[in-house]
Amino acid sequence: EVTPKSLRLRKIILDELERKLDKARNDRAAAALEADEILRKLPDGLERTTLVMFYVERKSMTDIADDLHISLRYSFKVKKRAMEKLNRVANADAQGELLIVADDNL
């Protein structure tokens, strides 16, 4: 039987779930903006595309390789190289230096 007390409890639970969902959406949006800012430090190209597909679009490396028409092995090499470049940029940023990274795929 539905009672006023059970309805209030359901409303409290739904409100709390909605609050948590809103927070999760906001956190995800903030993380996406941060990821975009970081990935913009790489030139447009295969490396940036691979990282966007992996970290932002949450695709598997198999799907990325298929979408980009490259071998799975090569997709892992591209991802590794891109992460190494981002690490160099992050280290330079931490030391207050400007580092320009080139796209090896040109």
Strand-helix topology:
Layout: H1 4-39, H2 46-56, H3 61-68, H4 72-94
Description:
The protein is 74% helix and 0% strand. The protein has 106 residues and is an all-alpha fold. Helix 1 packs antiparallel against helix 2. The longest helix is centred in the first third of the chain and has 36 residues, at 4-39. The chain is elongated. The N and C termini lie far apart (69 Å).
Measured between the Cα atoms of the first and last residue, the distance is 69 Å
**Count of separate DSSP helical elements:** 4
Radius of gyration: 21 Å
Low-confidence stretches: none
Question: What would you call the structural class?
Answer: mainly alpha
Helix content: over 70%
Mass-distribution shape: elongated
Strand fraction band? under 5%
Sketch the major β-sheet: none
Average pLDDT works out at 87
Q: Work out the number of β strands.
A: 0
What pattern of helices and strands is seen along the backbone?
HHHH
Key words describing this protein structure:
106 residues, 74% helix, elongated
Summarize this, please?
The chain is built from four helices and no strands.
